[in-house]
Amino acid sequence: MGSTGETGPGRTGDARDRDSEGRARNARPRDGLGRPLPYEADGVPRQPEGVVRTPEETVAEAQRLLDEGKPFHAHEVFEDAWKSGPDEERELWRGLAQLAVGLTHAARGNLTGGARLLRRGAGAAEAWVSGSGQSRPHGIDVASVAAWARELAGDVEREGRPVDAGGRAPRLRGGGPGR
User: Fold this and answer.
1) What crossing angle do the helices spanning 111-132 and 90-108 adopt, rounded to 10°?
2) Three-state DSSP class for residue 15
3) What's residue 27's pLDDT?
4) 31-64: pLDDT as tens digits
5) How far apart are CA 102 and CA 107, in angstroms?
6) Paired strand residues for 11
7) pTM of the model
8) Which residues pair with residue 30 across a beta bridge?
9) Average pLDDT, the chain
10) C-alpha separations of 124 from 6, 110, 138, 166 in Å
11) DSSP secondary structure string, 24-36?
């Protein structure tokens, strides 16, 4: 008798979630912080991957998702920009993606990892600004966003509890944290 390799209701090992190139994809529904839910659960709509947006569209979509308390999904928007944008901007978008992942971890309760990623993302974005000479690329107030990230990292470590992702979302174009 052969093994079916069940991975979920009605799913076999041979029917794993794969894209057209054979890479693993997890089609399980996810919550607002990107955590996998059972296959039969209702999740939040997934952010489509590989979308090419203008920088303006990237910043607007990421801000909307951050404000909604969906930093995991905002990270995917930044990741698309990182992968599809000009080579000279990759480190900027990568740093912003790290900030969104840091907020995700801080909201999920991985406080040490969240604080580390917030600081790493702040440093990467600031390093990009320093090297490029652009203080507000695409209108992003990198200095304020980096200050937000470091403040949040300190708060997470000091308070020792998960944060409200939407309530602590950065303002990418300035104006302080939150809404």
Assistant:
1) 160
2) helix
3) 76
4) 888 888 888 888 888 777 888 999 999 999 999 9
5) 9
6) 8
7) 0.81
8) 36, 44
9) 87
10) 41, 21, 16, 23
11) B---S-B-TT--B
